[in-house]
Model the fold of this input.
Amino acid sequence: MIFEILSIVIGLYLFMIMYFNYKYPEIRWDWDTIQTDKVEFPEKFIWGTATAAHQVEGNCINNWSEFEKGSKPTGEPNIKDNQQSGLACDHWNRYLEDISLIKKLGVSYYRFSVEWSKIQPEQDVFDEDVLRHYLKMIDALLENNITPVLTLHHFTHPIWFDRLGAFEREENIQIFISFCERVFKEYSSKVSYWCTINEPGVVATQGYFSGMFPPGKKDSQLSAVVLKNLLDAHVKVYHALKKMEHGPQVKIGLVKNINQFEPWRRWHLLDWVISNRVNHFYNDSTIEFLRTGIYKIRIPGLAWIYHKNVNAMGSIDFFGLNYYSHNHLKMQFSPKEPFIMKYPDGDILTDMPYTIYGEGLYRAIESVSVLNVPIIITENGVADARDDRRKLYIKRYLYAVSKALEDGFDIHGYFYWSLMDNFEWAFGYDMKFGLYEVDYMSQKRTLRDGSQAFIDIVKG
Ligand code: GCO
Done:
C-alpha cells in the first residue's frame, strides 16, 4: 500500500514538473552563432531615448524626496549610502543642451515625464510658471524635430497626495484624473504620444511588498489593492482624455515592465510555485486585466482579489513595454525571506541585480502581443559603469527587436533608457544607465564609447 501511494505521489510530482517545463521553457539563444550585426528596422520606426522628471530635473519635493531622507526599520537607509536626488542632472535648467544631445544620437523622439508635485504644489494650486516651463521644453523639442512623448506619472507624486493615502485609496483616483486632464488641456495640441502611468506593477510591489520604494510598506494584500487602483486609474484617465479636445487623435498607452521570473531549480516544485505566483502577480494580472477587464490575484495567504472593469478593454492605443531582464527565484524556508534571487553561472551580470538576457525581450514582446495593439519599447538599457558591456547589451537586445519585427510582431518603436546617467531610485547615483555619462560636480555630459553601438544602429 505504502509503495502504491508513494509511486502515485512521485508520478504526480514528475508529471507536474514535466508539464511546467514544457509550458514555460526558459528560452536561450546561441549567441555564439548569432550575427547581431544583421538587424533591420522599418523606415518609419520610432527611435528615442527616455528619462523621468525626478531622476533628472532636480529639486523635486515629493513622496520620493521624503523617502530619501528616511531609513528602514532595520536602520538601513532607504537609498544606498543615504544618497538624495537633490539637483540631479539639473535637466530643469539644462534641457536645451540635453535636446542637442538627443539630436546627436540621431533619434527623433524623447520620452520624459512631468513632475506632478511641481505642477500642483497644493491640491487647489496649479503653478502657471511650471506649466509654462514644460511648454517651453515641448516647443524646444518640436523646433528641433523631436517628438515629445509625455508620461503623466513616473513613480512620484505630491506629498499632499501621499498624505491622502495616494493610490491605496480608490477615492483618490479622481484627484489624479483632474491633474491629468489639466496637463492634457495644456499640451495635447503639441504632444501626440501620452503614457499614463509608468510601471504600476513596480510601484505596487516595490512600494508595498519589498518596501524598497515609498511608502516602504510590506503588505502583500495592500500591494494587490494598489495595483488594482493604479490600473483603474489608467483606464479612467485614458477614457477621460479621449473625450477631450485632441483626445481621439493622440495615442495614449500604459507603460509596463515585463520581467520573467524563472524557477532556479527546474526540477523543484516549490521554485516553480514561487516563480509562477510572482509572474502571475507582476506580469500576467495586468495583461489579463487589459485583455479581459478582469483583475484577479490569487496567492493563498498573501493576496486575494477579484475585480472587474469592462472599460479596461480597449484602454490602450499602444502598449509601452519596459524590458531589462529576467530573474531566477529559489525558494527557501524562511518566513522573512521566502525566496532569493540567483544568477546562473556564465551569465553576464549588469551593475543592477540582473543579467544580460536579450532573448527575454523577444519573449516579452511575444507575451504582450496578445493585446493586439502596437508595441512601443518605452525603456530598455543597461547600468554599466565600466562601459564594458553596453555595446554587447545594445546589440543583443536590438537583435531581438529586429527578429521580432521579422517574425511579424507589431513593434512601432524603441526608446533607450536612458539619455544620461541619473538618480536610479533606491540605488541612488551609483547606477550608470546613461548613453551620456554625467559628471555631477560640473554637470558635464560625455558620450560613452559603448553608446556608439546604439547610434550606429539608429543611423544605419
Ligand atoms: C523603472 C523606471 C526607470 C528606471 C529604469 C532603470 O523601470 O524603474 O521606469 O525609472 O530608472 O527602469 O532601472
Observations:
- The chain has one domain: 2-459.
- Residues 27 and 359 are 7 Å apart (CA to CA).
- The domain at 2-459 is CATH 3.20.20.80 (TIM Barrel).
